[in-house]
Amino acid sequence: MMERFLLQSMDTEEKFYKYEEQRLKTEENRREAEHAREFQMLQMLGQMLAGISSTVSQRSQYMPSNPSQRSNHRSYGDNFNYNSMTTLSPPIVIERSFSMHKTHSIKEMENIFQLVRNIIPPLTAKKHKGQDGRIGIVGGCQEYTGAPYFAAISALKVGADLSHVFCTKDAAGVIKSYSPELIVHPVLDRPDAVHEVEKWLPRLHSVVIGPGLGREDVLLANAKDGLWLIAQQPSVIQNYPRAILTPNAMEFSRLYEAMLRDPVDSNDQHGCLLRLSQALGNVTIVQKGERDLISDGEKVLVCSHEGSSRRCGGQGDLLSGSLGVLAHWALLAGPEKTNGQNPFLVAAFGACSLTRQCNHQAFQKCGRSMTASDMILEIGAAFNKLFET
User: Fold this and answer.
1) What is the CA radius of gyration of the chain?
2) Residue numbering of the annotated binding site for (6S)-NADPHX
3) Per the annotation, where are the binding residues for ATP?
4) Which long-range contacts (CB under 8 A, 24 or more apart) does 268-272 make?
5) Cβ atoms of residues 44 and 229 within 8 Å
6) Which of 58, 243, 275, 299 is deepest in the core (most CB within 10 A)?
7) What is the Cα–Cα distance from 115 to 346, expressed in whole angstroms?
8) Sorted alphabetically, which Pfam families does this protein's record hold (predicted)?
9) Mean pLDDT for the stretch of residues 27-56
């Protein structure tokens, strides 16, 4: 009896170890597959950025060639949103202040609001469809269809004429059902995804990368968003001056540690923001939080416009969509309309203020039940209140 029991125990133990060995091997294979897919996504993002950069090179014959003018172009021209002018390449978004002071006078705040008003193009009967903005949103998978919709519809409601969404096949039908105004391309899970997105780049003025990329088991697998990818391999965005990043606190920490190999100093938020922007090549960064901090590596702007205590999902997508439009408008307006300020700082301050105003107005009506959809309904009224009154 005892012998039989011992044999059964040995047999059970052997089966357990075989099962455990198989489980560990399966887990190892899963991780290897994830790493391979992550690498594919990084390659795709890098190829897309290279495509945008090549557009800059092809149009460089229209650019000023002397050093001082080229230096100004770095400040005024390059970003992740797309400019409709034929002399500039499209910019990209992957989510105030005139000094390092923590507080700003009412006059200073009004001055920067005026700069935002200056970049808003007038509505005239002579314009054609697409002239005020053709925006691309790269994101959307089976699990996350709301984020790309929020970004795309926000861009339209701010004033863009056309909004394209590049998503996976599973997400396309759902996103189309949200709004007939959106142009939806189900291409991100195709083998030729890079080519399918790249061929649209010359027609777009701004590109927003990241809303709802998800962790689906496809080409874009394990990519929470564009910022997650950049944290894994910062070189894909480093020294790309037309980029605007919109990280929250956690995403900012990951980016900071990836670039500077040190933890964020919570007592020196402005300094950390400046250092990260400089480390990335003076990329514009909007650090979202209780106060939105905006920097191009040279100065820090603080947007503390009144919002609410409600933090619903989707607010960052509203911000990135509106920022895509405003960045295009800021480039189109030129340095004379921004009073020599970096146009992306002006655009970012406008987008942050607008998002906060939408949050405030929606909360006044809905209270605790407020969602991002309620905020989007407020875009028109909030825009008029801030910039057209």
Assistant:
1) 23
2) 212, 248-254, 317
3) 288-292, 307-316
4) 269/293, 270/100, 270/102, 270/295, 270/300
5) no
6) 243
7) 7
8) Carb_kinase
9) 61
